[in-house]
Amino acid sequence: MPPRLFKRSLAAVGLLFVAAGCAPEAQAIAPEDLAAHLAEGKAGTGFNLVDLRSDVAYAGLHLPGAVSIPYERLSADRLLFLDGRPVIFYDDGEPDVARLSRALGERLPTNVVVLEGGMQAWLTARLPVERGTS
């Protein structure tokens, strides 16, 4: 896998690749950096946060402000990318970028970000979670 770029500012994610004139494979954000953005109340306003796991896994435990869109339903939810905000995806572990690419049409949009280490890294860092569906 090629090296990933780590950015603290979610706004910089799309700008970096627009300026370079290319589409990224996927940006990555560390759990602690995402937690800081969540603490500022940015999920749903500054970025979209998407849980790629099953609906059952999501109902059991998920990141604050996340919506559940399992891989199988992802291609039907392309509207997430129209507002230009970064979309942060997570799975149990590192999100499968190849699977994301297939679901989204081979080339990832420039605003795709993955949570480094996924839910496991989030839990290991003892960051806040929510239970149930909202």
Unreliable residue runs: 1-24
Rounded mean pLDDT score: 78
Could you tell me the number of beta strands? 5
CATH architecture call: 3-Layer(aba) Sandwich
What fraction of residues sit in β-strands?
5-15%
CATH class categorisation: Alpha Beta
Biggest sheet architecture:
5 strands, parallel
How many structural domains? 1
Sequence of strands across the biggest β-sheet: 1-5-4-2-3
The CATH topology comes to Oxidized Rhodanese, domain 1
Counting DSSP H or I runs of 4 or more residues, the number of helices is 6
Order of helices and strands: HEHEHEHEHEH
- CATH homologous superfamily assignment: Rhodanese-like domain
Helix content: 25-40%
* Derived structural class: alpha/beta
Task: Calculate Rg over CA atoms.
Answer: 14 Å
**Tertiary shape:** globular
Distance between the termini: 35 Å
